[in-house]
Amino acid sequence: MTTKKVTGSQAVILSLLEEGVDTIFGYPGGAIMPVYDALYDFNNNVKHILTRHEQGAVHAAEGYARVTGKAGVCFATSGPGATNLITGIADAMIDSTPLVCITGQVASPLLGTDAFQESDVVGISMPVTKWNYQITTPEEIPEAIAQAFYIAQSGRPGPVLIDITKDAQFGELDFEYKKCTKIRSYVPEMPVDPFKIKEAAEIIDQAKRPLVLFGQGIIIGNAEEELKAFVEKTGIPAAWTLLGLSALPTDHPLNVGMLGMHGNYGPNLLTNEADVIIAVGMRFDDRVTGKVSGYATKAKIIHLEIDPAEIDKIIKATVAVLGNSKKSLKMLTENVKENNHDEWIERFRKCDMIENEKIIHKDLYPEKPGLTMGEVIRIAAEKTNHEAILVTDVGQHQMIASRYFKFRNSKSNVTSGGLGTMGFGLPASMGAQLGRPDRMVIAVIGDGGFQMTIQELGTIVQNKLPVKIIVLNNNFLGMVRQWQQLFFEKRYSFTELQNPDFIAIGKGFGMEGKKVENREDLDAAVQQMLDYNGPYLLEVVIEKEDNVFPMVPTGAAVSEIILEQ
Amino acid sequence: MRQEYIITVYSENHIGLLTRITIVFTRRKVNIESLTVSESAIPGVFKFTIVIKATKELTIKIVNQIEKQIDVLKAFYHTNEEMIYQEIALYKVPTEALYENDTIEKIVRNAGARILEITREYTVIEKTGHKEETQALFEELNKFKVMQFIRSGRVALTRDPIERLSEFLKERDAFLNSLD
């Protein structure tokens, strides 16, 4: 291998190029200026997106990562630049999203002196990164970046932060790049144990009322086909977590819907009827389980999972199969008998009918005068043939969109699940669009979350990203308002918003847009948005007390799911 | 049932790893009763000995989360009964008290302690043992007014005949090579 003399900052960019990075999200500042200076010479090799806030950069990197499966990359300067990344890093940590965040740091002799824009970003980010590392000499740069990509993208993915002092950026080194393929102290995934597979297969073959619960592990592991093959051979109904959404087409006959607090009636209710639960690439989040002691009370649990720390963390596994779901599902499919569970599936269909009658039909085809979130989602989804990438923020609109959008393709749903980060949606949609320029990206955002990162409208316009933004505006922090209505005696404590003229704001940034208040205008307005060549902001005024049901109230068991207030 | 557990962690010698490990405890509001870190017999591999009071269930979860840290090679947990362990304590007493009668000498003898240094002002006594033992000696000596007292964190060995770490490292190397 040939080496050449370069500066530390050039080594940063060269290392990223070696890792195949094509897009960087970031924001310059004093301590990372040498890296930005080096970037100036690589304008043709890598795209840099200047966001309006570092939080925008990190959420955009997450959006990019979620639709491509590759690590999202972001740059920020020291001090406030770096601390502004933290929310996004925490979001990526809990949602297993691969990120490589590179922050500038004050020169090494100044470390610990309270220098201008110094913050202990390695210390601050430690609880929310899969790994982090501070570089103080230029020679460390290629190896640290190689390790960063390996760690971020392998095993259960996650965010990695590399902090580089300014003197390391200025210094010189002989550049030589070698991709990282192993680290002695790190086993990204365990080989699948064939004995565990046999044990699991025996239980599955004897099950009368089995249920598959799938999570993002399927999407991260590219195991969509393996999941489909498994459920089709065994005839087992399958339900998804919020982040597992889009891994199996929504209209697949064995797809029985969404789990959790605002999931579908059948999968929640029947979790407690199931005799065997096959959980794949999911971690039994409390929003999925409800009251743990009342969860899956009759079921043996088979847990297919890449992260050993997830086994028995919340729900004790009867059989735990460690490893990559792509491999374990394939082996499991080979070991199980062909089967069908038509009577059991009929139970889900009956639940669907009840839910449809009590909730879904009214949400999607309302007869009351006020517009519902559900009808907006239905129209947008139908008009894009359910093939768009859906990016959501956090709150009522997120649950409604997840329930009703319906997907045909994997890696099509981008949302903040574990951390529930309001303000995620708009910047994540830019990253999703940059990651998949060939696909339509629809961002659905509430009026509260929209105002948390609204400045990124500027980034979208500057970079001509044709994102279609739907703001569902009920002039309330709707989910909190719903809880206040149901559980806090309608004491609406600080949830009403006096909103600005969103369309005027969009126009101020140079974005086309339209506000819709009446049902008769909705269809045409959505069509106009989709037909528009470029970014577009559609504001839809939603009825204030449009609530999300069904609901598993906090502290209740999944089988205590309520259909109406 | 909450009881004492000894958690042993083998790791690479990387800056910041101590914080990463302690975060696992603080995040769950588990107090660390004692902590000792030093290089193991294998150069470059560091060993943490951490004592906590917790349930077995929580201890297992904590060990799993520690092992998940990238730079951690392996973590184990044991009950006190499963390990041989010691702590070291140093006591500084006024030398005058030794001159007055032979009580201190008897205490030191009976406790199996030893005297490290004698000056005109003070005498430093050392004792290794379990916490109850070093604490009992403190109570005895404090009748003569202990001027300073310090107790170390715990060090512990398993009762296994083999060194788990070297076996483990061999297996890990073979395993990672098999993935190539």
Explain this structure to me?
The complex is a heterodimer of chains A (565) and B (180). Chain A is an alpha/beta fold and 565 residues long. Chain A folds into three domains: 4-175, Rossmann fold; 194-348, 3-Layer(aba) Sandwich (Rossmann fold), CATH 3.40.50.1220; 371-541, Thiamin diphosphate (ThDP)-binding fold, Pyr/PP domains (Rossmann fold), CATH 3.40.50. Chain A is built from 23 helices and 20 strands. In chain A, the strands form four sheets. Chain A has a six-stranded parallel sheet with strand order 3-2-4-5-7-6. In chain A, strands 11-10-9-12-13-14 form a six-stranded parallel sheet, with helices on both faces. Chain A is globular and about 70 Å long. The mean pLDDT of chain A is 97. By secondary structure, chain B is an alpha+beta fold. Chain B has a domain at 3-84: Alpha-Beta Plaits (2-Layer Sandwich). Chain B contains six helices and nine strands; from the N terminus they run E-H-E-E-H-E-E-H-H-E-E-H-E-E-H. In chain B, helix 4 packs antiparallel against helix 5 (131-142). At the A-B interface, strand 6 of A face helix 1, helix 2 and helix 6 of B.
Order of helices and strands of chain B: EHEEHEEHHEEHEEH
Strand content of chain A: 15-25%
- Stretches of chain B where pLDDT falls below 50 for ≥5 residues? none
Strand proportion of chain B = 35-45%
Mean pLDDT of chain A: 97
Structural class determined from secondary elements of chain A: alpha/beta
CATH topology of the largest domain in chain A: Rossmann fold
- Biggest beta sheet attributes of chain A: 6 strands, parallel
Strand order of the largest sheet of chain A: 3-2-4-5-7-6
Classified by CATH, the class of the domain at 3-84 in chain B is Alpha Beta
Would you tell me the structural class of the helices and strands of chain B?
alpha+beta
Oligomer description: heterodimer
Terminal CA distance of chain A reads 69 Å
Morphology call of chain A: globular
In the CATH scheme, the class of the largest domain in chain A would be Alpha Beta
Architecture of the largest domain in chain A, CATH level 2?
Answer: 3-Layer(aba) Sandwich
What is the tally of beta strands of chain A? 20
- Helical residues, percent of chain A: 25-40%
Chain pair forming the biggest interface: A-B, 22 and 25 residues
Distance between the termini of chain B: 44 Å
